[in-house]
UniProtKB/TrEMBL annotation:
InterPro entries: Integrase_cat-core, RNaseH-like_sf, RNaseH_sf, Transposase_IS3/IS150/IS904. It comes from Gracilibacillus boraciitolerans JCM 21714. It comes from the Bacteria. This is Integrase catalytic domain-containing protein. SUPFAM superfamilies: Ribonuclease H-like. GO terms for biological process: DNA integration. Residues 4-182 form the Integrase catalytic domain. One of its GO terms (molecular function) is nucleic acid binding.
Length: 207
């Protein structure tokens, strides 16, 4: 019977948390989650996020991810070569692949692999995926890859990144929104825009 991995010690936990805290601005995280379609095909969703801002800087969907596809997603996420210093990822074979690790090395990105069965070490990505599931994908049954890509794009770009406030950001949004001077309620005019066909609405002040 294989030995079960020992749980991390308090010292190890604090050491990891200290590293994350000290490098928030230069750390990204990456992870996969899956979504079944209406005909039971499994779609794989990749998200890449910035630790400090909580912004999802890139996502994509595929039915059959491989190392070349993952590398291409990072190229798409860093079109001007402005990537992170550190990348947090789990032990997915695609992230551990020679091709992906060589790409990170050539891009000046240090791979920070989590311990086996330690999702807490990639807590930012795990939390973001949990939010996406609860607020988006749990409410739909996608028809195909194109369908879920469209819905996720709407949710992430038009709601999550730009309008959804985060407790960890002191109530701010990943992409900062412009501040307005306070006005009286009777003078305030708002325009509502639906997201995901009305599942959510965002509101903007109009003159």
């Amino acid at each position: 019977m294989a030995n079960k991995p020992k749980p991390p010690t308090e010292k190890q936990i604090q050491s990891w948390k200290t590293f994350i805290k000290n490098h928030l601005s230069v750390t990204w995280a990456v992870d996969f989650f899956t979504i079944p379609t209406f005909n039971f095909k499994i779609l794989h969703v990749l998200i890449i996020m910035h630790h400090q801002t909580r912004q999802i800087v890139h996502f994509n969907v595929t039915t059959n991810p491989d190392a070349e596809w993952v590398v291409q997603q990072f190229r798409n996420a860093t079109p001007y070569g402005e990537g992170p210093t550190y990348l947090i990822h789990d032990n997915d074979p695609l992230f551990r692949s020679i091709k992906f690790q060589r790409f990170l090395q050539s891009s000046g990105i240090q791979s920070k692999r989590t311990s086996y069965k330690s999702p807490w070490q990639n807590a930012y990505a795990e939390r973001a995926i949990g939010i996406i599931k609860r607020e988006c994908t749990d409410h739909i049954i996608p028809i195909n890859e194109k369908h879920i890509r469209h819905l996720l794009s709407d949710y992430i770009h038009n709601y999550y990144n730009s309008h959804r406030t985060h407790q960890g950001l002191a109530g701010q949004t990943p992409i900062p929104t412009p501040k307005h001077l306070p006005v009286k309620a009777e003078e305030l005019k708002l325009k509502a825009t639906s997201v995901m066909n009305g599942l959510y609405h965002i509101y903007k002040r109009i003159a």
